[in-house]
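Notebook p. 47: complex prediction with magnesium ion.
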Amino acid sequence: MPHRVIRGVGVSPGIAVGPALVVRWGVPPVPERTIASGDVAGELSRLREAVAHVRERVERIRVRAEERTGPEEARIFDAQLLMLDDQDLVGGAERLIRDNHFTAERAFELKVLEWRSLWSSQGNAVLRDRLPDLADVEVRVLNHLLGLPERDVVDALPEVPTVIVARDLTPSLTLQMDRSAVLAIACEQGTRTSHAAILAHSLGIPAVMGLQGLLERVASGDQVVVDGWAGSVLSRPTAAEIAAAETRNRVRRQLDVELVAGATRAAATSDGEAVRVRANLDLPEELESACRSGADGVGLMRTEFLIVGRNRMPSEDEQAALYRRVGEAFGGNDVIIRTYDIGGDKFPASFRTPTEANPFLGWRAIRVCLDEPEAFRPQIRAILRAAAHAPIKLMIPLVTRIEEVEATRELVEKEARALKRSGIEAATDVPVGIMVETPAAAIIADRLAEVSDFLSVGTNDLTQYTLAVDRSNARLASRYSPHHPAVLRLLRDIRESAAAAGREVSVCGEMASEPESAYILLGLGYRVLSVAPPSLPQTKWLVGRVSARAAADCAREVLQQRTAKEATEVVHRALSEHVDLGLLDPAARLPSRRRRSSLRG
Ligand code: PEP
Ligand code: MG
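Predicted complex, structure tokens below:
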């Protein structure tokens, strides 16, 4: 590999060749001044005016984001609006003005500094990903207070299309990038789940992030090749290297056409095994893209969006209408609605919740629902009502005990009877299935299968709980692998238990959308996969490129490995015989929980 290659993480697919433009932006220097006590009131109102001004500005950017990229991406800017309403940030700055007589800009800068060091010191990937959002707000407020020009555009985007090279990009800077002027984005910092990455992907601009040493090795005007699939930047390419990059780009574009064309067809392996590929829906807005991408129904509809960030629980009518709309959208294919997976940091504002030392092992999901039947009942009733019109199923998250399934079934039966008595149109019953996402559920999958209508493996949590590795801790990312032999053995056993009981079993964790992992799952005998809508075409395509027999051989070999690394090497080698893995979309590997939480801010 030539020294001119810099490796990072591909966050938005595509290959671009062009001149680099190094963009430097930063927080403006703030003079160290204090004010006289008589000026406190004036300084406080200056700060409030600046915050109100920036708030209005961010709201306008939010509208622009909605127009350019869609409602999901627009939500990225909610995080900034929340910061501007935050009592600790703005109220804290006000206190510094009142108590320490700092100027408004100095007080705001100090509070942001405090937040930044807190967020950076915690091993929390989501918080670290949010640092550029904080910078966005900081720069805007400080610029306004210091009387500097609004920084809404990268100063002077050149006339010729360029590759933007930066240490880091904030969401609002990224939003201004236009495909006609910006060929690609390359950043030293940033991850797959940072807002800049999500926006670049939505804008269709190839992007690579996490490129260490980029700014030392690339200067403005240098020719570069950015490969958003491979996650690399090549500086000063030779003519042959440019030609090779262009060929790769062409091959990949052809593949895109194939993916779109094949998406609406039923998926089957090359040796004729039918595989259903369903959609995971986080938000109702994803419904249309799931239908367009040929989803064979919905394998997991998350319902937390109905309660997180709201101050009241959703009504039964509101839910019934929504579930019916989703249920009727897939031409008779199953739609699986997961009951509230609340807990940890995801509680409705109206809920009184105890502080817990270990929220991920705490009062969560089905535990909360069964302890608070008044909150759970409207959801069950809404599902029953929608099931009168569409093939809807109910799925319980975080199951560890048989009693949880039995108690849920009793509630379903009771509510079905009550609906009938009241003459409300509703199904008399609804299939009740479980998520297998704890080692306990995996180990007693045979017993759970006796009381459940179907099983769906949530590999995101199953991996986390089996390996005792927090799925959102960036420091532990390399230890978080569903290819660990413990997880693979559980996956094998779950499928066998479900098959023995004659129950359908699917996988709805992110593993199903990662090509290598999907190949292992096919080899282990899984025939129903559920993936985020952007991954649907690629997953269907992948299924058609491989044979079930070869996948089974590969899975057998994978199960014999001692480590996750060895297992990954085996599957990588085996799958490379059928597909060029370097051409697949990096977003397909975007963990949706992280994406979702990042969209929520
Ligand atoms: C899982 O745990 O794999 C899963 C699909 O659920 P969530 O990501 O919502 O926890
Ligand atoms: Mg889960």
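Notes: The first strand starts at residue 5 and ends at 7. Confidence is low (pLDDT under 50) at residues 589-601.
Next step: compare against the earlier run before touching the bench.
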